[in-house]
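Appendix C reproduces, verbatim, an entry submitted by the partner laboratory led by Prof. M.T., so that reviewers can inspect both the input and the predicted structure.
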Amino acid sequence: MTTPVTPRTADPAVSVCFTVTIDDQSLGVFNGCEGLGCEVVLEQREEGGNNAFVWQLPSRVKYSTIKLSRPVTRESAQIARWISSVVTGVGEKTGCIKALTLDGDLVAQWDLLDVVPVRWSGPSLSPDSPKVATETIEIAHHGFLPPSGR
């Protein structure tokens, strides 16, 4: 007998939040995550005497920067601390982004190699527009690591 599929089990990533840690130091919870991805750069080589096709050979992998956003919270100070540690020359960092349902169930996890902050932008505060104060951090990395099971 098969169990009926409920909307929660059919699509667990409808409402997710993202927890971010850098070397096991939490940067907190984010509600937006863009740019998780990579691109394989191809080199084209033509073979003499073969006019049917051009060889496309993988040469390197490029990783896009990741942009994380959230409303400003008390956890915002942790980002400033991390950026300060990078400026003072602290070594390579590994990072982990976990996508969680609103119930806290793990949907997916990405472990990142050599994470560095690229850009941070804080809220635009204006009495003319009563919006939620948000912040965005953009990070770069040198590749994905096998999941550590954290």
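The longest helix spans residues 76-87. Additional entries are available on request from the coordinating office.
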